[in-house]
């Protein structure tokens, strides 16, 4: 019996399907159980979302932009997340840190936009691999 | 008998709105960071960086205490001009797509007005609210100017030319009811009147270091965190100062600014008392010794360390030159270079002839009674002499109404 080593083990089998809009405007369809956060889902589906601090709320590289209706329905971010968002590249009014946002039914069929870049400078085109 | 000719010594400084002398206690606090403790406060890996970072953070909290907020809400800048630019351009940069209307007043500092003009070029609509003859904006007019796409209202708390204090608390209440951000240029108010940003309920505020007996070249921007105000930074880089103002901080300037703020907090009641006393002495003296004068700006809603007076029938620049041994200004320091009469006085409804005769006298922490008496002496003497030479004064004495004269002849 393999025990999954994950703090956020799949809590229920209910699935939700939505889309990531990549930097080149292409869409990646993803399906995930409810309760996972956006960064985990992105890494599972090879979406180009960097997560430098591994969900420990210490960087802004998992910055995503949500549609306004969805953003308004989610609970308010904690001040620590807001502080880090201040440092995110391409910040918008509906930005969140992907590692702090857990998906549920509200996410069905929404399009999550990835920003054009992160604070880390990859002007040479380098793409960091998830760890 | 040999006449001893004294060399002309430095004039008495009575221009505390232009700048203030750096308090020696501030200089003391700054010196270590100009000599031994030279580390970059952003160097995270060694004690040179840690010690200067500690000093900068201490200064930040000293400034935060002065305006009753948390240290994280204070961003260091190069001065109030940069803070004003950062606030207005920053708000527009972040929220500008849906909100592109800004309201300000006709008596703002040039850096606010010039920034608004620049934003107008970018497609922002700007409403410049007029002021009444006392220098105050009408809250009714403000209410009526707010539209659904209004981004923010920028009103300075204390005016630099006339010393008038706006009713910022009420302005904030009106604006927040309609979802509009409030920015205030507080440069002339900090350390002069009590300023509590929680009580005033503003979202952004500009502070200048050299107006509170601190060093020149440093200022701060108060950026509210609850509810959070987002700005697009005007200076990009490594993300210092919460990403809002990149660049290495100058520890000596920050520490000086912080110490000046700390002194201001403890000494504010004494400073206010001192300035009030000298203001009464000055005002009574001018009224007694010199007829035909006009005080520009509300006498009730005023910071008493700023007295803008017009002397009828006397030209302002020649008056300043006649009182060489006192340093005062006509209008404000930043408009001294341009030839136009002060736009602030024009907004008050002061006629051009009176605007040209005006003088701004600034009193501060280090002004003495003797200096005020000296000014009164010099001023009354100079005004009398200049009026004796003035044909307009002669005409006035004879009872001729100057305003009824046709000066130009058709040819």
Automatic annotation (TrEMBL), chain A:
Necessary cofactors: [2Fe-2S] cluster
GO MF terms held by the record: 2 iron, 2 sulfur cluster binding; electron transfer activity; metal ion binding
Keyword Iron applies: yes
Pfam families per UniProt: Fer2 (PF00111)
Keyword annotations: 2Fe-2S, Electron transport, Iron, Iron-sulfur, Metal-binding, Transport
CDD domains linked: fer2 (cd00207)
A GO cellular component annotation in the UniProt record: mitochondrion
PROSITE patterns cross-referenced by the UniProt entry: 2FE2S_FER_2, ADX
InterPro entries, per the entry: 2Fe-2S_ferredoxin-type, Adrenodoxin-like, Adrenodoxin_Fe-S_BS
Domain spans labelled 2Fe-2S ferredoxin-type: 14-118
Protein family: Belongs to the adrenodoxin/putidaredoxin family.
Name the UniProt record assigns to this protein: 2Fe-2S ferredoxin-type domain-containing protein
Record organism: Paramecium octaurelia
TrEMBL record, chain B:
GO CC terms, sorted: cytosol; mitochondrion
MF GO annotations: cysteine desulfurase activity; iron-sulfur cluster binding; metal ion binding; pyridoxal phosphate binding
InterPro entries: Aminotrans_V_dom (IPR000192), Cys_deSase_IscS (IPR010240), Cysteine_dSase (IPR016454)
Cofactor list: pyridoxal 5'-phosphate
Keywords: Iron, Iron-sulfur, Metal-binding, Pyridoxal phosphate, Transferase
Ranges for domain Aminotransferase class V: 12-375
Keyword match Oxidoreductase: no
Biological process annotations from GO: [2Fe-2S] cluster assembly
E.C. number: 2.8.1.7
Enzyme class per UniProt: transferase
Family: Belongs to the class-V pyridoxal-phosphate-dependent aminotransferase family. NifS/IscS subfamily.
Protein name in the entry: cysteine desulfurase
Organism (species): Paramecium octaurelia
